[in-house]
Amino acid sequence: MKISTVFTDRDGVLNVDKPDYLLRLEDVEIHEDVPAALARLTNAGIRVIVISNQAGIGKELISKRAAEAIFDEVIREAESGGGHIDAYYYCPHTWDDECNCRKPGIALFLRAAREHQFDIKGAVMIGDGFGDARAAEHLRIPFFLVGQGWGPVTKVKCDSSEVPYQQVKNFSEAADAILKLNEGSDT
Fold first, then answer.
1. Helix (H) or strand (E) holding 134
2. Distance between CA atoms of 86 and 48, rounded to whole angstroms?
3. Which member of 9, 17, 128, 132 is catalytic?
4. Residue 11 bears catalytic tag
5. Residues 106-120: tens digit of each pLDDT
6. C-alpha distances in angstroms, 7 versus 26, 30, 40, 137?
7. Kind and range of the H or E element at 123?
8. How far is the C-alpha of 119 from the C-alpha of 153, rounded, in Å?
9. Checking CA distances to 95, which of 6, 57, 183, 186 falls within 20 to 30 Å?
């Protein structure tokens, strides 16, 4: 099946992850490979949707409004190379809230597929966290693990838990691998 959709995490994948939480607009720092890679995905007709856990909201470290302003800035910078992010979804809860939208929960993925009318079987996930890996596993979609952000820690967790992944350096390398997969697909 041809890949129609890329789910991606935000912090550590699109932008540099901060030690605790990204709480200030002026601290947004996009990874330099992202704008060109996003443009390659967009030009190939692949939709890109961000799915992110944002526990800083639930911990009252940042307001929803401020968090959404940060999302808007990350997206603006990511799209600076001519690519497009179709939507973003985030979970504002903490682990203690026991919600089903916090990754590795899959509620936000299913909502995105419903709202954007696509088959989840044609999607992949790019991430740096173990929650990203487990969500992809639950959805039975390929997972591309970036080597930045939490990637090195997540690699150990995936290996010890036998959670499948394809190791990539960054978003750009993941995009190239996805485009190559589509070249070999005729459906």
1. helix 130-139
2. 6
3. 9
4. yes
5. 999 999 999 999 999
6. 25, 17, 15, 13
7. strand 123-127
8. 31
9. 6
Q: Which of 175, 164, 176 is nearest to 130 (CA)?
A: 164
Architecture of domain 5-183: 3-Layer(aba) Sandwich (3.40)
Query: In whole angstroms, what is the distance from residue 161 CA to residue 67 CA?
Result: 32
Q: What is d(CA 134, CA 38) in angstroms, rounded to the nearest whole number?
A: 24
Residue type, 41: L
Amino acid letter, residue 76? R
CA 93 to chain centre: 17
Domain definitions of the chain by residue range: 5-183
Residue count of the chain = 187
Active-site choice (11, 17, 33, 132): 11
Calculate ∠ Cα 42-43-44, nearest 5°.
90
| 33 catalytically annotated | no
